[in-house]
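Forum > Structural Biology > Help requests

Title: Can anyone predict the 3D structure of Deoxyribose-phosphate aldolase?

Hi all, first post here. I have the sequence for Deoxyribose-phosphate aldolase but no way to get a structure on my laptop. I'd be grateful if someone could post the structure tokens.
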Amino acid sequence: MGCSSDKTTSQQSAPDSKAQELVDKAILAHGGKKFENLNVVFDFRNRHYTATRKEGLYTYTRAFTDSTGQVQDFLSNEGFRREINGQPVYLPAERKQAFTNSVNSVIYFALLPFGLNDPAVQKTYLGEVTLRDQPYHKIKITFAPEGGGVDHEDEFIYYIHQKTFLVDYFAYSYQTEGGGMRFRQAYNPSTVGGIRFQQYINFEPLQKEVPLTDLDKLFEAGKLKELSRIELENIQVKN
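Reply #1:
Sure, ran it for you. Structure tokens for Deoxyribose-phosphate aldolase below:
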């Protein structure tokens, strides 16, 4: 369950406690307690999102228009539901899970590194690395099966700047849709309402059989291919 500082084996607890300390500093550098009670709205790829959190309760929404009409998705502690033209619609479990994943994924990445202290997160310190002549700490993130969601087998590596504690890069592997790996480079950051929001350049390796831990080396060597840009628009943080 996240930090393993309660374990008795010193070999295990030392790197995990260091990883936990660095994640805490990264969250503080990106917005700290402002993440805990927030009301954020933004647009991403022609869809309108909102994220509200208060005292552990959350509601995320996504709104867009398609051939069926005006669609609004709601994801909260109580689960997922969809309305079309203001009327609730029945969704089979598989569709409901897919929509849950897509809404949660967009909000998760938009609010990084806040989610790295979720209870199911397991943190491991991997050491130091230099990217674009800047010093970083390298943190591996995995998820416990219980509470880690359907994507609990995904693995992430976050690069936390040694001086600013900002997360300027991260890499991840995923198992859905045939699986793959991505490396993201943050750019064009903006601070809105005391929270730092970042855009990302999304890269993939040219070859599939590459260790996730080596993506930073491929990035430095210019051996990653740009896939897309992750750009949030019209960001607002409301009181």
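The chain has one domain: 10-237. The CA atoms of residues 88 and 230 lie 30 Å apart.
Shout if anything looks off.
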